[in-house]
Amino acid sequence: MTAVSKLQYGDRFGEEVIKIARGSLSVASSSSEAEVASAKYSRWFNGEDATPEPMATSSRKFRKITANMAVSEVAAATKENLSILGDDASDLFTSKLPAGHKMRRTVRPSLLHGFPYLGTCKFGEVVTERGQDKYAVTQMFIANFDGDLDTADGANFYKPASRDFGQMFYGVHILVDRFGNPLGFDRDRGENGIAFKTKDVTKALYSIASASTGLSIEALQKRAAAKKTAR
After folding, report:
1. 82, 134 contact by CB (below 8 A)
2. What three-state secondary structure class fits 157?
3. What kind and span of H or E run contains 88?
4. What does the UniProt keyword field contain (predicted)?
5. What per-residue confidence (pLDDT) applies to 101?
């Protein structure tokens, strides 16, 4: 990789991605050009890392991200890939939910402000309470990064732990009007409106199953244990 291509890499991707690239380049300084080109963002998008589901399945279908793409192209590809990830997350969890669950499939990707390669995708939601003029809804998401969530007024909701890629699942409690327009977080539920946040797919499954059936996580775990014992 020449000095010119390194400069172009940074110019096109912006400061956030070039910092990721520098970390990879410093480790691979004695490697071949092909190895150097496998920076962290490339490995994630191309499915070369040992990643958990649904990322392992989704990454094989992702649109490739290359170093000669403009930031707008990276953002468009990331959004497309997040949709794929959301579709696969919905399929994965729906296939394992108890019969009669009430989770509705809703795939909607979004990018983090200032990070054209990081984002989230809503893949499901459950209406938990219906009022005359508003509904209580629990929405489920998958993100291609790890971090914290902040529902405080005026705060940035997403707080990435780093500029690197990862995978986490989370759910939020919100209120919507009768037309489905969001009214804000339902901070009286969960932890200030956060239903769950985890990197563990099994924990995410139990949280989603609880929200979509009305059963407690403990009751669901007992059912699963009884079913396993009966085999």
Report:
1. no
2. coil
3. helix 71-94
4. Plasmid
5. 93
Locus of tokens 């924990």:
203
Tokens 């609880």 — which residue? 210
Pick the closest to residue 172 from 161, 163, 184, 160 (CA basis): 184
- Cα 41 to Cα 24: distance, rounded to the nearest angstrom: 10
Domains of the chain by residue range: 3-230
DSSP 68: T
Do residues 227 and 182 lie in contact, with contact meaning Cβ atoms separated by under 8 Å? no
H/E stretch holding 62 = none
How many other C-beta atoms can be found within 10 angstroms of the C-beta atom of residue 88? 22
Tracing tokens 């239903």 back to the chain, one arrives at 195
DSSP state of 132: S
DSSP of 165-219: ---EEEEEEEEEETTS-EEEE-TTTTBTTEEEEES-HHHHHHHHHHHHH---HHH
Q: Model confidence over 75-113: pLDDT tens digits?
A: 999 999 999 999 999 999 999 898 899 999 999 999 998
Question: What type of residue sits at position 197?
Answer: K
How far apart are the C-alpha atoms of 121 and 11, rounded to whole Å? Answer: 27
- Token pair listed for 157: 């909701």
**Residue 190: Cβ within 10 Å count:** 19
